[in-house]
């Protein structure tokens, strides 16, 4: 496990890691979105609804892969090979227990959800869960060492193989099972890549006492992630039980279309941001500057995209997936609150975890998740529309307590959170408005959709070029591309949220 001692090297690794991760993320997004289009057209809403219920259990793998134990490996500073080995063994045992419990309970689960085919795919789902737990620590160690290029390469290969598997099997008539095989393929290739190419192998474990802080940290994070998982997946389970596979399929596709760009941004960003913030936690000035930049990038990438999608969602879904899926576009509009709230929710998580305040995060997530669960139960009686509104409103309302908790007892102030939102808000509102204006043009549907998206994206690009702080933020990434030290990209002068004068070179402080 190598370390980075030089602050200049740390900054350079952060910038390059962000760029590599962003590029890999964009490629994976294109592959996954293309796969979703092809498979959804082949399966249709009803069959896709069963697949969505099945994938509720598959997504538990993400909880295991990004578990509290893995987060502890990223956050704590006293890690050694023996502790890493013990944490790895614990993670593998937990995933094995969960996989076994799923195999035992899958039959009654299938009956409760009126999905008798669920046990047929249980071995695949169990394998995904087991592999996720065994991948968690090797991947966290790579992220801790800032080896983002290797992580990106492994994930890109795994995603490409999984997408090809899903399309081939769906075309061959495997139905919903094609998505289960896709998940298993991705899990297997990710495990092999992280474990073998990463160069780390578990050895003799440390004593129980030395690893107990990691276990306590992990338990708090596990409670947080498990509760969040339940609140994020209960909607599909309830819809399947109350409204049937068709409604579940339409709703699930809408949720996936909202979460796909969000997931492609949030997971890589967290992988880059969390290790850096954890190392800067004792340097309040640089910690706040890096947080502002990370939040600014997240919001700038997501909010204009969400604003455009809110306008064109029904027409876009109809064109891409077919007229049978148009209802997903209407539901997607109702779910847009999730996308707008997400950067602030994830930003809160970065602050709490990097400061080691996982118990506070656990309490926050428990409160917000319980409120979301209650809202989903109340909205389920109104079908997909009621559930979508309940989830979206809960996401927006949960932002306020999250921000209060993040700023309290941290080196941040409220301006560090709200200042990065100003220009992205203006850009998103303008992009959405110009996109909406095009809807009044009497053009054929395909032409109108292409024009609307082009105008929205063009407006976003133009404003990014014209607004000086935003342009400076984007240009500040150029030193990393040229292999130069990123001092000028990490000082207050390049921070788009700073309004203070540019310091002299003697006054600059590297992160």
TrEMBL record:
<feature type="transmembrane region" description="Helical">
    <location>
        <begin position="447"/>
        <end position="467"/>
    </location>
</feature>
<keyword id="KW-0472">Membrane</keyword>
<feature type="transmembrane region" description="Helical">
    <location>
        <begin position="150"/>
        <end position="174"/>
    </location>
</feature>
<feature type="transmembrane region" description="Helical">
    <location>
        <begin position="49"/>
        <end position="74"/>
    </location>
</feature>
<feature type="transmembrane region" description="Helical">
    <location>
        <begin position="180"/>
        <end position="201"/>
    </location>
</feature>
<keyword id="KW-0812">Transmembrane</keyword>
<keyword id="KW-1003">Cell membrane</keyword>
<feature type="transmembrane region" description="Helical">
    <location>
        <begin position="86"/>
        <end position="109"/>
    </location>
</feature>
<feature type="transmembrane region" description="Helical">
    <location>
        <begin position="334"/>
        <end position="352"/>
    </location>
</feature>
<feature type="transmembrane region" description="Helical">
    <location>
        <begin position="418"/>
        <end position="441"/>
    </location>
</feature>
<dbReference type="InterPro" id="IPR050833">
    <property type="entry name" value="Poly_Biosynth_Transport"/>
</dbReference>
<keyword id="KW-1133">Transmembrane helix</keyword>
<dbReference type="GO" id="GO:0005886">
    <property type="term" value="C:plasma membrane"/>
</dbReference>
<feature type="compositionally biased region" description="Low complexity">
    <location>
        <begin position="488"/>
        <end position="501"/>
    </location>
</feature>
<feature type="transmembrane region" description="Helical">
    <location>
        <begin position="121"/>
        <end position="143"/>
    </location>
</feature>
<comment type="similarity">
    <text>Belongs to the polysaccharide synthase family.</text>
</comment>
<dbReference type="Pfam" id="PF13440">
    <property type="entry name" value="Polysacc_synt_3"/>
</dbReference>
<protein>
    <submittedName>
        <fullName>PST family polysaccharide transporter</fullName>
    </submittedName>
</protein>
<feature type="transmembrane region" description="Helical">
    <location>
        <begin position="386"/>
        <end position="406"/>
    </location>
</feature>
<feature type="transmembrane region" description="Helical">
    <location>
        <begin position="294"/>
        <end position="314"/>
    </location>
</feature>
<feature type="region of interest" description="Disordered">
    <location>
        <begin position="481"/>
        <end position="511"/>
    </location>
</feature>
<feature type="transmembrane region" description="Helical">
    <location>
        <begin position="364"/>
        <end position="380"/>
    </location>
</feature>
<feature type="transmembrane region" description="Helical">
    <location>
        <begin position="20"/>
        <end position="43"/>
    </location>
</feature>
């Amino acid at each position: 496990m190598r370390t980075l001692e030089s602050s200049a090297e740390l900054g350079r690794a952060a910038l390059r890691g962000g760029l590599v991760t962003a590029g890999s993320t964009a490629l994976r997004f294109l592959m996954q979105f293309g796969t979703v289009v092809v498979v959804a057209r082949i399966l249709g809403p009803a069959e896709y609804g069963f697949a969505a219920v099945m994938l509720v259990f598959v997504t538990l793998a993400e909880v295991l892969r990004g578990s509290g134990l893995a987060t502890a490996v990223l956050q704590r500073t006293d890690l050694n090979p023996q502790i890493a080995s013990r944490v790895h063994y614990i993670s593998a045992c937990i995933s094995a227990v969960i996989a076994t419990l799923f195999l035992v309970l899958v039959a009654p689960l299938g009956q409760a959800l009126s999905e008798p085919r669920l046990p047929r795919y249980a071995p695949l789902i169990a394998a995904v869960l087991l592999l996720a737990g065994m991948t968690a620590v090797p991947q966290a160690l790579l992220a801790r060492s800032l080896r983002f290029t290797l992580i990106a390469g492994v994930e890109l290969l795994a995603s490409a193989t999984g997408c090809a598997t899903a399309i081939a099997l769906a075309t061959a008539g495997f139905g919903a099972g094609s998505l289960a095989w896709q998940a298993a393929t991705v899990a297997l290739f990710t495990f092999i890549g992280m474990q073998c190419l990463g160069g780390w192998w578990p050895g003799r474990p440390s004593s129980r006492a030395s690893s107990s802080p990691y276990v306590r940290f992990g338990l708090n994070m596990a409670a947080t992630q498990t509760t969040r998982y339940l609140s994020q997946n209960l909607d599909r389970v309830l819809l399947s039980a109350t409204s049937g596979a068709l409604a579940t399929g339409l709703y699930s596709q809408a949720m996936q279309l909202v979460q796909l760009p969000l997931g492609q941004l949030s997971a890589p960003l967290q992988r880059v941001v969390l290790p850096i913030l954890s190392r800067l936690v004792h340097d309040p000035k640089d910690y706040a500057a890096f947080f502002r930049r990370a939040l600014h990038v997240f919001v700038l990438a997501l909010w204009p995209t969400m604003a455009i999608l809110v306008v064109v969602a029904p027409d876009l879904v109809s064109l891409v997936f077919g007229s049978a899926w148009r209802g997903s576009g209407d539901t997607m509009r109702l779910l847009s609150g999730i996308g707008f709230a997400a950067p602030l929710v994830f930003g809160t998580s970065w602050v709490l975890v990097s400061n080691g305040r996982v118990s506070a995060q656990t309490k926050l997530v428990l409160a917000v998740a319980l409120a979301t669960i209650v809202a989903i139960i109340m909205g389920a009686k109104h079908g997909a529309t009621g559930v979508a509104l309940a989830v979206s409103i809960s996401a927006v309302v949960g932002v306020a307590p999250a921000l209060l908790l993040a700023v309290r007892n941290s080196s941040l102030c409220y301006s560090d959170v709200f200042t990065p939102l100003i220009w992205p808000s203006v850009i998103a509102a303008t992009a959405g408005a110009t996109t909406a204006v095009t809807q009044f043009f009497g053009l054929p549907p395909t032409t109108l959709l292409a024009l609307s998206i082009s105008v929205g994206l063009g407006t976003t690009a133009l404003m990014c070029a014209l607004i000086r702080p935003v342009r400076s933020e984007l240009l500040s990434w150029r030193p990393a591309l040229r292999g130069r030290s990123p001092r000028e990209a990490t000082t207050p002068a390049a921070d788009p949220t700073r309004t203070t004068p540019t310091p002299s070179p003697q006054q600059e402080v590297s992160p």
